[in-house]
Amino acid sequence: MLLEVRDLEAGYGEVTVLRGLSMTVASGEIVAVLGANGVGKSTLNNTLSALIRPTGGQILFDGTDITAARPAQVVSAGLIQVPEGRRVFPDLSVRENLLLGSYRRGRARRDANVERICTVFPRLRERFGQAAGTLSGGEQQMLAIGRGLMAEPRLLILDEPSLGLSPLLVEEMFALIGAINAEGLSILLVEQNVAQTLEIAHRAYVLEQGRFVMAGPSAELADDPGLRRSYLGL
Amino acid sequence: MTASLLVPALVNGLTTGAIYALVALGLTLIYGVLHIINFAHGSLLMVALYGVYFLNTGLGIDPYLALPIAVPAFFILGYFLQRGVIEHTAHGRDQNILLVTLGLSIILDNLALYFWRSDTRTIDVPYGFDVIDIGVALIPVPRAVAFGAALGIAALLWFLIGRTDLGRAIRAVARERQGARLMGIDVEHIYGLCFGIGTATLAAAACLLLPSFYVTPQVGHAFVLVAFTTVVLGGMGSFTGALVGGLILGLVESAGGLILGESLGQIGIFIIFILVLLFRPTGLFGGKPA
Ligand SMILES: Nc1ncnc2c1ncn2[C@@H]1O[C@H](COP(=O)(O)OP(=O)(O)OP(=O)(O)O)[C@@H](O)[C@H]1O
Ligand SMILES: [Mg+2]
């Protein structure tokens, strides 16, 4: 198993948000975590990225216990998050943002990786010298993903990559995530966009109030009457 | 007014301004990245001046040759002040950091008063009264060295921040901590480095100042007020702003001294401080708030 989470509990001070989550991501999979606003999706991501210290449970990455690791160690291990709201470095150029993606990887393959990413996102090459803060929302999302890829992830966590994009761009974004995965990268896709996410994910977990209430292969979940009613409005 | 008066005043202003710029660069770097106003900046400069003074009087080390000792020593001191004291006492609250740096400055000032009294101390260097003749004016050698070295150090810092991997990480942390953490940048380490670099500039300033200046336990106050004005004038956190602001204030002080007399020279600086706050609070080079 690439990622294995056991009975994970985390929160903010007195407030417990995650109440015992267990999940796995196998190598090569796209696994989705679905849930409405405020159920704890980003809290889960940030706990995996070690920005939040868990109050209980265990996180294993490729068999190594990273429950008590520091954020930089998690990045070095290859668990990379593209956060909600992109969080690009606004006054650094597109190029500098990409270079910082390889902060824990050194210079050896840096230029080759920039080249590869600019082939995937030609728009980034056009905006190479421009400050990231001046990019459109869609371009910033591409930059955030490109910056994450620069870190040579073994597992890429994407937190609501379709948020705030036009329907056409959302379509493009999901196709792109599928394409990145087809090249062998494992992805944990955290989304509210249930229909489109289930189309590209292999498996999914449904998060409600800090607990997984459903889990299974995407096709099964897409046919589940309860899920169709609550999340797809069908 | 004749050129024979004006040119030396100009030269004088620029050389003083270069030192102001150096002190302000340290302050603005710490503000720009850690978003804290370091009230201990002036006191640390005072400590650095005493350090260089005692290296000279005790061990006979020339202030310029003390640079490679004082600068790394103050870098380490600054790093551990941030990582060992400020980080642990502040708990991430800005008002706590203000109090910590203010407290530190009071402690340092009073320790200095206790140990060294308020005597004004100077050192003697063989080149202390040498001058360079540039035709229209005579420039004292210590001032020429201070001017050149301060600009050189500023250029070095500019290169470090603008062109290196570390500088890129520093600029990333300054505006987007969370994003930086997610790329594996150790934010607390970067904070320590910036506080260290900011403190190291004070050691450099001390080495350049002492051959033509003096040290007392209160000497830091004059500089830190000017440095705050420089940072406000140039724009909080702006690098170019600190450099240009420092030079402008040096000139203003010198011109003020020429017109109003030596002792009132600094009045112009505070008039500028108030005018900038009134009419352009973001400063000359200040951007949008971080
Ligand atoms: N820094 C914080 N301090 C305190 N509470 C927080 C903090 N961040 C989030 N929370 C709370 O934790 C709960 C889960 O938040 P989280 O951001 O994980 O939800 P989410 O599923 O990502 O929501 P969204 O879809 O809106 O991004 C919410 O009730 C939120 O108010
Ligand atoms: Mg979220």
CATH topology of the largest domain in chain A: Rossmann fold
Number of strands of chain B: 2
Dominant shape of chain A = globular
What gyration radius of chain A follows from the Cα positions, in whole Å? 17 Å
Q: Biggest interface pair, residues each?
A: A-B, 26 and 17 residues
CATH C-level class of the largest domain in chain A is Alpha Beta
Distance from N terminus to C terminus of chain A (CA atoms, Å) equals 35 Å
- What is the number of independent domains of chain A? 2
How would you state the average pLDDT of chain A, rounded?
95
Q: How is the quaternary structure best described?
A: heterodimer
Strand-residue fraction of chain B? under 5%
Beta strand % of chain A: 25-35%
Classify the helix fraction of chain A into a percent range. 25-40%
What does the main sheet of chain B amount to? 2 strands, antiparallel
Number of domains of chain B: 1
Number of strands of chain A: 10
Distance between the termini of chain B: 45 Å
Structural class by helix and strand composition of chain B: mainly alpha
Largest sheet of chain A: 6 strands, mixed
Q: Write down the Rg of chain B.
A: 19 Å
Figure out the total of helices of chain B: 11
Provide structural commentary.
- The complex is a heterodimer of chains A (234) and B (290).
- Chain A has 234 residues and is of the alpha/beta class.
- Chain A has two domains: 3-78 and 154-231, P-loop containing nucleotide triphosphate hydrolases (Rossmann fold, 3-Layer(aba) Sandwich), CATH 3.40.50; 90-153.
- Chain A has ten helices and ten strands.
- In chain A, the strands form two sheets. In chain A, strands 6-7-8-3-9-10 form a six-stranded mixed β-sheet, with helices on both faces. In chain A, strands 2-1-4-5 form a four-stranded antiparallel β-sheet, with helices on one face.
- In chain A, helix 3 packs parallel to helix 6 (137-150).
- The N and C termini of chain A lie far apart (35 Å).
- The relative contact order of chain A is 0.18.
- The model of chain A has no long low-confidence stretch (mean pLDDT 95).
- Chain B has one domain (3-279).
- Chain B contains eleven helices and two strands; from the N terminus they run ααααββααααααα.
- In chain B, 73% of the residues lie in helices and 2% in strands.
- The chains are: A alpha/beta (234), B mainly alpha (290).
- The complex binds adenosine-5'-triphosphate and magnesium ion.
- Magnesium ion (MG) binds at residues 41-42, 84, 159 of chain A.
